[in-house]
Amino acid sequence: MTKPEIEFQAGPAPEDLVIKDVIVGEGAEAVAGGTVEVHYVGVEFDSGEEFDSSWSRGEAISFPLRGLIQGWQDGIPGMKVGGRRQLTIPPELAYGPTGGGHPLSGKTLVFVIDLLNVN
Q: What are the residue boundaries of the PPIase FKBP-type domain, all occurrences included (predicted)?
């Protein structure tokens, strides 16, 4: 797989988590509370500006879902290895409201996640 391009979404940011399968995988399924190995790109919904990407670092990342933002905890389970999924995550399921102390507080985020493995 190659680094995905995230298309700009017109209109107002969604108030709820939006899950869109770009590619449906055929491997093992991610489960809530499990550990996943992923490649991902994250952009701000409003600007389309990239704020984080495992692709840019040149290596996939493995971590337990329970340690991630709620939008990932809710949006990755059910995904299968080999799949690519886009998550549009409102602030409440990301880094909280504006003024929350994180640089991305108050922002709707869009991630494209490639699921490489589950543990």
A: 33-119
> What is the percent of the chain where pLDDT is above 70?
100
Please write the tens of the pLDDT for every residue from 84-113: 999 999 999 999 999 989 999 999 999 999
* Euclidean distance between CA atoms 63 and 32, whole angstroms: 12
Instruction: Report if residue 13 sits inside a domain.
Output: no
Is the overall model pTM greater than 0.90, yes or no? yes
For the chain, give the DSSP string.
--PPPPPPPPSSPPSS-EEEEEE---SPBP-TT-EEEEEEEEEETTT--EEEEHHHHTS-EEEEGGGS-HHHHHHSTT-BTT-EEEEEE-GGGTT-STTSSSTTTT--EEEEEEEEEE-
Write out the residue range of the structural domain in which residue 90 sits: 18-118
> Is residue 107 assigned to a domain?
yes
Domains in the chain, number: 1
